[in-house]
């Protein structure tokens, strides 16, 4: 097993249990404790974990992103529920924009039953997911690859995403706060998502329950800039009242 593969598996364990023990990992991977300590050193330097005596704990900082292949395994049930709801909002022949979130991959997969969609995206993973769909038009935004994210960002990505007019944009986020709005951990991603929002007649936020009442580094937009919010679990009543006051449609499994 490559070191990077082992570190990704350690990250999965951290996401699940919030902490890991050196001796347990050494036995699990059949390597020395010194090897595991080097792995934890690397994860600590990358800001993904915080070393502690005999192990490590996960870094809960919302501005730190796990590698894409680790993030896409988090709350898969919630992402599938969100994708199923968004599938009901998309019509055959629609032009849509998908962001480079892990949730967008689940959405792309759920939409494959649709006909004649045009999908514009800066997500390499979404492009790969939809590469075998025959009657769709898949458009890449252009831009520079963001290491570890499978995403295209930068001025060319913003220009490419802003060059089209679509019926619906679907974005995700790192944080959703009543006062501070919709936020992400990286300014490059926020800029790209702002271009997506400007290009669409209908703005849809796909955010699982862990994003509510969370604040990340860079603002994408105000909550009032959204038309629809899709989540996996019924939010607290104050959120429901807030969405109603802003005339934002809220959708979740078994919602009215």
Structural notes for this entry:
The protein is α/β, with parallel strands linked by helices and 256 residues long. It has 2 domains: 3-60, Arc Repressor Mutant, subunit A (Orthogonal Bundle); 70-251, Rossmann fold (3-Layer(aba) Sandwich), CATH 3.40.50. Helices cover 37% and strands 23% of the residues. The chain is built from 10 helices and 15 strands. A hairpin with a 4-residue loop joins strand 7 and strand 8. The radius of gyration is 19 Å and the shape is globular. The N and C termini lie far apart (48 Å). The model has no long low-confidence stretch (mean pLDDT 91).
Strand order of the largest sheet: 6-5-4-9-12-14-15
Percent of sequence in beta strands: 15-25%
The strand count comes to 15
The figure for the number of domains is: 2
Under the CATH scheme, the architecture of the largest domain is 3-Layer(aba) Sandwich
